[in-house]
């Protein structure tokens, strides 16, 4: 039978004979007059559930309701059954209903009306309450912050991660949203909705809020959360669930505090469940909490913590309790938190610390004790230095292992040239001979080393080849017999190091250029992307020409190989909620020396694009991706615009270049990447005099691109509308034919084949 289905109601069923009929009656009594389907999936029930369901379907016919019973006789768990429901769903929207819960009679009508009210909506949230069947009463407990909003939009969608309960049933989802983003429940364990919930919040574009209670959770003693407390089922499932959920953060998030909110939820639940849902075994409970802490540290090693948070979480994340795996202290703090005594405890600790500092200051300021303290400190520092040198000498005496490679990456992150070169190298080298230094879990565990760990130092000082993508710390000593390859992270357009006075940097750190030159002297090879880059590196880094190899960048090799992949482009746009029917402008400005280390309120942001001014000129056919520099924050006048998406640093720049129709920058080298695929680019430069004083640009390059430079948004709009780029002729020394096999060429340097062929 063919019918136009608006909503799919998905109901997994396992031994629900006691409640299933009442649940189905709430579905059958819906005021919704459009066609909808009810997908009932048996999960291997051994009671009379299926017989009761069949009888109900036969005796309750409504012309707009289409019941479908899927009964394969298998038991796979609720997560797998909900996923099957998504795959089977024919409706425009999906709602999940547990076999023992209830819908309000207006649920489908109210939710569907709000969901379809705007094409920007991905799902709607409605209120829920506990239902007590003995009395027929409901209890409403929600105190969530999203209730203050009519709808959550873009960054604010991640407000859902502040919730005290991660529920997925009090929502109606667009089926296309779930399928396009491949959002699925975990399978094979309970707490399967954690990762589903987290990914929905991370991927959503707009979420209307419905204040009505449209879903009721039946309270009874046979629910999953209230059984199996004497087994390790809850422990095992929870750890799998939070690890899978934490991995979703690796693909990026929009609010800088999102990792804090997610991990706050994890640690709170771990403490709660250790008391209520685990066997009465102290060792097992402690190991459970410690395992939770380890997962938090692995996936979110540098959590940014907001101000004015509860003392429990201040201790957990700001005072290092989670980071240091202090299980007993965490349990003590949780107990105090539940007893409403933690504020008193916190204040007493502060008073104690203040008294301690007063005593120390009194001792420090004692005229007769000062010489003793001074000499004692000198002795301590001397011992520390001796210990550090002994440790370093131990590493320096290790034998170098032939063909062993260590990659440091850019700020230890898995992106840029390091990412694409590593992806190539791991097809050649096994984990015994190749390591990538990062906390990023996207690097396979067998290849990954934690920065500055004991394992890192052992591997670093036994590696024949060291590959970096930025400045390498001076404390990392180069050994005789090592080969250091510097990938770098861009072609110079703004003047660098010895080609610039870098006045701001030198005022803050007079030793700046000395340190950088010491690092450069350790490089055996510097990878360049073109002949013009080679020329600029030679002067700016004061490095011998023969050390600069123009193999091209691995990241641009990937760009050349993938920029015509329409399916990939579409998938990346969908993943990042970027419209498929707009002309996409990637805006990627660089940071300003003259703002370095200034307070945020003192920074000059006037050089940034005024998005509204440009879009007013270009019209609704255009959409801006704002790839702000990591050292900048957005001014208020550039936030909350519907035609602008600000992405974070975890979004891969090469993907953004590929999906964009054009690129706008100022002094960033991103246009050198675009050149390799003939992607149009323009420049919005408002502060040339100021920038020239602080750092400056290479004037020969500036003259080359002058016809693409705009001084304000009106000029930029004109250049875009008249397609000024079509008249731009790319200079030959900006191009590089070798780039099509950049990674392979770098492997030749690693394997010393380059030296043989010189």
Brief description of this entry?
The protein is α/β, with parallel strands linked by helices and 758 residues long.
Descriptive account of the structure:
- By secondary structure, the protein is an alpha/beta fold.
- It contains 28 helices and 23 strands.
- Strands 1, 2, 3, 4, 5, 6, 7, 8, 9 and 10 form a ten-stranded mixed β-sheet that branches. Strands 13-12-11-14-15-16-17 form a seven-stranded parallel β-sheet, sandwiched between helices. Strands 20-19-18-21-22-23 form a six-stranded parallel β-sheet, with helices on both faces.
- Strand 21, helix 23 and strand 22 (681-684) form a beta-alpha-beta unit.
- Helix 8 packs antiparallel against helix 9 and helix 10 packs antiparallel against helix 11 (327-338).
- The chain is globular.
- The model has no long low-confidence stretch (mean pLDDT 91).
Instruction: Outline the biggest β-sheet.
Output: 10 strands, mixed
Strand content: 5-15%
State the low-pLDDT regions, or none. Answer: none
**What coarse outline follows from CA principal-axis ratios?**
globular
Tally the beta strands.
23
Q: Helix coverage percent of residues?
A: 25-40%
- What's the Cα radius of gyration? 30 Å
Distance N terminus to C terminus? Answer: 73 Å
Question: What structural class do helix, strand and pairing data support?
Answer: alpha/beta
Give the integer mean of the pLDDT values: 91
Our count of helices gives 28
Quaternary form:
single chain
Features of the shown structure:
single chain; 758 residues; alpha/beta; ten-stranded mixed beta sheet; seven-stranded parallel beta sheet; 28 helices; globular
